[in-house]
Amino acid sequence: MNLTIMAKVIAATAALGMMLSSARADDPLVVIASGGVWLESAKANFASCYKERTGEEPEILTLASTEVLNRLRANKDNPSIHVAMLSEIDAIRAGEEGLLDKLTVEKVPNLADVPEIYRKQWNDYATISNFGAMIVMYNKKNIPNPPADWKTLIDRTIAGDYGDRVSFPAVTMAWGPMFTWFLTSLYDGDENVVFEKYKAMLPHIAKYWTSPVDALNMFAAGELDILVYWDGRAYAFAQQNDWAGAYIPEPGAFQSAAMIGKVKNAPEKAWTYIDCVLSPKAQLGHAEMIKYPVVNSKVVYPDDLKKVLTPVEKVKQPDFRSFMDKIPAWVERWNKEIR
Q1: Is 247 helix (H, G, I), strand (E, B) or coil?
Q2: Where in the chain are all domains bearing CATH 3.40.190.10?
Q3: What is the CATH T-level fold of the domain 30-131+256-311, as seen in this structure?
Q4: For the chain (length 339 residues), average pLDDT per consecutive 10?
Q5: Which CATH architecture has domain 132-255+323-338?
Q6: DSSP annotation string for 159-225
């Protein structure tokens, strides 16, 4: 009798497991995108490709990288997110913590056309899907001849040549540490010099920005003459406003990127979405909408788009592991000395 009951329990448990597994397979794929034009591009290019291949609509959430990482950590066995979009450092951490599956050409055929430099630092647990750079926007009416290089820009800001109408990113914004790393590379790797420069600029900084929306709104409203900002949005703004200019100071800029990865224990159909993101057609459509370079080597940019994309040779990819453990101390120092 006990054996009969036990057999029934085992059978019921197995059936329940199959039902739950089937339910998960039938549930919508949950993917992450940034907001604004990035969200519109994800719908127009990635989700449309996924629907063509599977007949299904993915559910797209707009969440900050830190929140995505926290959700992955909180529910490893049954994740509520299936395809993660993360910052570079969060993607490294997610891979090291076993929260992502390794990308392979067998699972993601279009990965074969993504150069290794866009995947190597992440050990193939994530790949860059598009990248940009931090450049300079300026008001051409008030500053007809902006400084040609970063050091001159910083020194002239300290001297008060631009009044208090300058805005740089804060260390506390998501990519602030990468910008700080980049500046240290200009000052012989000395982070103390960089923090001294941050502090010396403070009397002439309208705002060390943390919100890119607020920063661009300030520039658009005429409250700033110089804004250190993302290249794609900067070039697009300059195209639409003839009083604005955008350029890359010498010796170039640091690369910032959107990382994509499949969450461990996510349904297999997540691979299809990632392959769509990396497909030549979707990549080109994405670049045309967001005005940032993409990573599939088969993509050929139209001439008018190529003009507003930061050349890859002008972009320096950070060595993330060389400074990621310093970030808490940098943030603490920023809050004490600058904020």
Answers
A1: strand
A2: 30-131+256-311, 132-255+323-338
A3: D-Maltodextrin-Binding Protein; domain 2 (3.40.190)
A4: 52 47 70 92 98 98 93 97 96 98 98 97 98 96 97 98 97 92 97 98 97 93 97 92 97 94 98 98 96 96 92 91 96 96
A5: 3-Layer(aba) Sandwich (3.40)
A6: TTTTTT-EEEE-TTSTTHHHHHHHHHHHTTT-HHHHHHHHHHHGGGEEEEES-HHHHHHHHHTTS-S
